[in-house]
Amino acid sequence: MLSICIGIYNWDVSALVSELSSQADSLGIDYEIVLVDDASDESYLVANEKVRNIKNVVYILNKHNIGRTAIRNKLADVARFPYLLFMDCDTTVTHDDFLKKYIDEIPAEVVSGGYEYGDVPPMRENMLRWKYGHVRETVSAAKRNMNPNASFSTFNFLISKEIFSKVRFDTTLQGYGHEDTLFGIELEQAGIVVKHIDNPLRHDVSVLTEKFRAQTCNAIDNLLLLCEKFPEGNDIINGIALLKAYKKLAKYHLIPLYNFFYSICKSLIKRNLYSANPSINLFDFYKLGYLCSKKS
User: Fold this and answer.
1) pLDDT tens for residues 174-223?
2) In terms of CATH, what superfamily is 2-207?
3) Torsions phi, psi of 111, nearest 5?
């Protein structure tokens, strides 16, 4: 019935896999847990070796890192059941009925469960990513269903293997960001509407602010590639807040003025982003400045 698909990179998944196995056993379903390690460091390979002893686990090691999108395609190729449950490795199952809620949705096309974040703030150097997750990613299913394909996330979702065989992840987007945007667009073009439910995983990500800032810039680069891929426009792309803000500046010929203020304020903004209380609004200002500089 269900293949649980997890790509691993530098994360100990033993507790996650154990919990998923326990929930699946209690449901009495046919299942497998497919794990593909994307060339993690040796310490994580050692830590995860114990998952081989958990029943119904398929554990594969990549010799070379293939990236976030390609690994999901590989997981689907290895999976043998008609439904695929994708989740990120840096997660914790916090609800006893997590798998049951997805099983109750079958038969289904695409179902997205959502995010949650822990309440304990991380260390200062990891604060921006944690706060961004709380403010922007923790969204109810009711709100996500208002614009379902635009709200799609690769973080935690169920999809039928039949649909995935038709709409696979496009590997032209490299690194971090907007692979979920592109997948949502391609699902929409195939006439498939994502269903959102309140079935979150806790995202245990711990990312240095400097790394998250660089990842965000990479995501904006990928967004520009999407704009090139869809030159005639697309409702999902056109609805992205960052692009809408840029187009408003362009409409009123304010980009040179924005770039001027951005050049003056950039160092002060970064100082705030690296602080113990970063402003997500200032982060938006930073992202718009980066986009304007790339487009200029």
Assistant:
1) 778 899 999 999 999 999 999 999 999 999 988 999 999 999 999 999 99
2) Spore Coat Polysaccharide Biosynthesis Protein SpsA; Chain A (3.90.550.10)
3) -130, 130
